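If your schedule permits, I should be very grateful for your opinion on a structural question. Please examine both parts with care and let me know of anything in them that strikes you as inconsistent. The record follows directly beneath this note:
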Amino acid sequence: MAVVPLFLLVAGSAAVAGLARRTPVPAPLLLVAAGLAASYLPGVPNYTLDPHIVLPLVLPPLLHTAALDSSYLDLRANLRPVALLSVGYVLFATLVVGYAAYLLIPDLPLTAALVLGAVVAPPDAVAATAIARRLGLPHRITTILQGESLVNDATAITAYKVAVAAAVGAGATWGEGLKEFAVASLGGIGIGIVLMVPLHWLRVRLRESALLENTLSLLIPFVAYALAEQFHASGVLAVVVVGLYLGHRAWQVDFETRLQEGAVWKVISFLLESAVFALIGLQLPVVVEGLGEFSGADALGYAAVVFAVVVLARFVWVFPATYLPRLLSARIRTREPDTTWTAPVIVGWAGMRGVVSLAIAFSIPAVVHGGGPFPARNLVLFLTFTTVIATLVIQGLTLPPLIRFLRLPGPDTQAETLAEAQAQNEASRAAEERLDELLQDERNALPGPLADRLRSVMERRRNSVWERLGAVNEVTGESADETYRRLAREMIEAERRVFVALRDTRRIDDEMMRTLLRRLDLEEAAAYRESAT
């Protein structure tokens, strides 16, 4: 892709994503709509989605970011439902959608139909989890959707490779398919396990250089993905395993690295997610022009049926997968919280497809062994495109009102704040004991005011969470701690203006101003993070 079109894509998609924050429409849906509209505007370049770019260069950083932000402990606690969706459902959808397409479309070989099934099987939970967080879905549902999106791409890509091998005449059998799936999954997990400990060790040893640590952080997902693929293992699983481990151990990394890393990955994730959803809409001309012998009416009829099968297959899987294990196992009934019928309805309807499906579809080979064309390749591309668009638009637009209609209980913010306050109280008590212990050593002697300042900062952290549980200011609606932080930020801004004025009058130089401003920035960042909790 040329530099100018790439710049236009990134800049345009970022602008639309920024605009989406001012509207009630989720950003992925607005980006797809903008891409669809822009695809037929005069002067807009033709953007062809290249799987050789999306899969090795776009997918790893998105997976890595999601894994860093996920909870290893929460995923482990919900391993059964996550595995049933990310592995069981994807294989089930591959078979159901593939066989339905085989029965529906004349002269479509079963192997090619299974390729279509594998391509549209994995949901992309970016849009679903964004909606879930915005509307305050129960934490367990959000965790399950996140966990599904981390692993299901690996299952779908492996199923796709097996189906393509059969379709092009490479002689793949069910036994070979199961063997390839086992090698890809176990190999990907194994490579992730081999990489995660030395990579974390290296990050900790680079404690003195946040820039080096973050440079390493940017390389990690690409290295993990490429190394796993080199050994014919799942690059997706390797990236996820490494990301989960590094996220779980992030507390051992220097604070400056964590601040920089969080900001860097947020920017990268924002730009990539914006660009890929815009790219989905921009594929319309490419897909429609390639339909060839299939008439518009027939193709649209096939698209409607495939979309319906995709949606129904998820519900057919989700409800038994939710209730059967509980019915059969007393241990599951004891260990896992009870659920109502509304939870599987939400999980079933949150099955939007995304860019991974399109990237896999565009990687379908043009010819089979012997030189003939891949059967109905253009139709498979079209059906993938329409399924992705239909799930994003129809399910994406209706998911928020469905959540509101079903009135699922949101997170218990009062209980969460109470737990946070208790945790902070224990931590503050440990900090106070450590301070008393340190001050007994002559090497740590401090003037009284400075020692009191350390105690007051600690005391404010201890009290801040409890104050959120208490009364608010009748005039402003703020708690005492919120008012404290607001006033602190106003004071920091007053200091900042003075430093700039001193620089402008040449009483201090730029280097000194930057040093002083960085201290203020760190204080303001701390205040902002506390107020955001």
Remarks:
- The chain has a mean pLDDT of 84.
- Residues 316 and 348 are 9 Å apart (CA to CA).
- The chain is about 80% helix and 0% strand.
- The first helix runs from residue 3 to 20.
